[in-house]
Structure formats: structure tokens, C-alpha cells
Amino acid sequence: MPPVSPNIRTQASYHKSTLTELCRSCYSTHLKARSATYVTSAPNEAGYPPEELPEYAFAGRSNVGKSSLINTLVGVPKLARASNTPGRTRLLNWFEVEPQKGPKLNFVDLPGFGYARVPREMRDAWRPMVESYLTKRETLKLVFILIDARRGAQEEEAELLDWLIECDLPVCIVMTKADKLGKSKRKPAALKIKRELGLPRPPIMTSAETSEGLADLWRVIHAVL
Ligand SMILES: Nc1nc2c(ncn2[C@@H]2O[C@H](COP(=O)(O)OP(=O)(O)OP(=O)(O)O)[C@@H](O)[C@H]2O)c(=O)[nH]1
Ligand SMILES: [Mg+2]
Fold it and tell me: pTM of the full predicted structure?
């Protein structure tokens, strides 16, 4: 792919779709991280990496798209293991990320909650595993709560949000899988989540399929640094 020159829009020899592709590729290159690597996985404090980098955690219901969103955000398709089988992420997973600007960060992919068909011992293990991370991690800067655009917020998301606010942890609400909603349903879905959770503004709308919302997420990440 040739580099996009500033005057590319004036080059009549480029077909319109080629132009769109080039602009899209330029845009997404800009949004990806410079590098992203897997660090470690752990169920408890003994296995956490040292508290050296600012950390961003991705929380939400099983299958909501946490691992997929991390992969899209950093631009490494198989970094965090995504799967159609709910309950795929069973430990806390750390990824070290070098953004396009600013210092290195950690992204933490948290195990999902709320899926009835995972084994009972796993469901029982979720709360202490995630709660002790969220309450003890000094370097934690922000928790993204992901909500499926088609499902909206339910009791579990509302409880998690209230609990994080009580713990004085900064939270950002993110809608996932926006590509699955028709154009006319998007705004109402965002407003519904705003209402359900009593948010000051609608959630950030994202899609790991189309890369929608990545610029907004990076903006939030840099804003809390
Ligand atoms: N259409 C669409 N599908 C998505 C999107 N994000 C994730 N998916 C799909 O949803 C399924 C679950 O995605 P994951 O990223 O594994 O979800 P998770 O929240 O990490 O799930 P757990 O690890 O089980 O907690 C996969 O089949 C993904 O391909 C999206 O933005 N759009
Ligand atoms: Mg996952």
C-alpha cells in the first residue's frame, strides 16, 4: 500500500473506492498502537505483573466483545483470544501497549460475567477474582464497562457501575457490536443505555468489525492519563 500523499484527493487517476480504501487504511494505522504484546494471565494478586504502567481494564458480560475490542483497538487481530463460546476469558489477562503517543500502558482483559451456562465454580470464582483486582490495583486508571448495543444494560451492568462509583474508580461506558444495529436503531439504543444507567451522556458506540469508535476510546484513554 503506497503512503497517502496530502494531495491524494486531487489525483483524478485514483478511483473513488481506492481513495476510500487509502484514507481508511491511513486512518486505522493512525489509531492502532505502535506495539502490543501479551504479558501474563493470573487469577489472583500473586500472579499480577508489577504495578509499573497505567492500567485500563475492560469489563462486561461474557461474549460482549471485550477481547475483540482490545484487539481492534491495538490493531493486532489475535492478541486477546476472542471466541463465540461465552466464558472464553477465564483469567485476568495483561497486554502491554505502546500507543501512537504518550507512555506505555497496560490493557487488562477481564473475565466476563453473567453467562448461565458456564460451570458453577467458575461463576462463583468471578466475583472475588475481579473485585480483588479492581479494589487493590494501584495503577488502575479507568474501567471500561462494555455493553452489547442490542441488549442494553441489565441489572449486572448497573450493579457493577454503582460499585465502581462507590470505589471511586473512573468508568467509561462503551456500547459494542454497533455494526449489528440498523442505522435507525443506533441512537435510540444509546439513549436507552444512558437512561437505564442514569449516565450524563450516551455511551461511546463501537464496533470491533468496522473499527467505529476507536478514536473516541483513544481520546478517553489519553484524557485520564
Ligand atoms: N459483529 C460483531 N461481532 C463482534 C464484535 N465484537 C465481538 N464480536 C463477536 O462476539 C463474540 C464474542 O467476542 P469476544 O471478544 O470473545 O467477547 P468477550 O467479551 O471477550 O467474551 P468472554 O471472553 O467470554 O468474556 C465473537 O464471536 C466475536 O467475533 C463486533 O463489534 N461486531
Ligand atoms: Mg474474552
Answer: 0.88
Task: Give the pLDDT confidence score for residue 116 in this predicted structure.
Answer: 65
Question: Residue 99 belongs to what H/E stretch?
Answer: none
Q: Is 216 exposed, middle or buried (0-12, 13-18, 19+ CB in 10 A)?
A: middle
Cell of 188: 435510540
For the chain, what is the total number of helices (H) and then of strands (E)?
6, 7
Interatomic CA distance for residues 90 and 111, integer angstroms: 5
Tell me how far the alpha carbon of residue 213 is from its chain's centroid: 10
Cα–Cα dist 10/29, whole Å: 22
How many angstroms does the Cα of residue 50 sit away from the middle of ligand 2? 22
Q: State phi, psi for 89 to the nearest 5 degrees.
A: -90, 110
Cell of residue 204, nine digits: 461511546
Residues with CB under 6 A from ligand 1: 60, 62-68, 82-84, 86-89, 111-112, 176-177, 179-180, 207-209
Q: What local confidence, expressed as pLDDT, does residue 60 receive? A: 95
Sorted by where each begins, the domain ranges of the chain are 34-223
Query: What is the pLDDT at residue 6?
Result: 30
SS3 content of the chain, % helix, strand, coil (to 5): 40, 20, 40
> What CATH code would you report for 34-223?
3.40.50.300
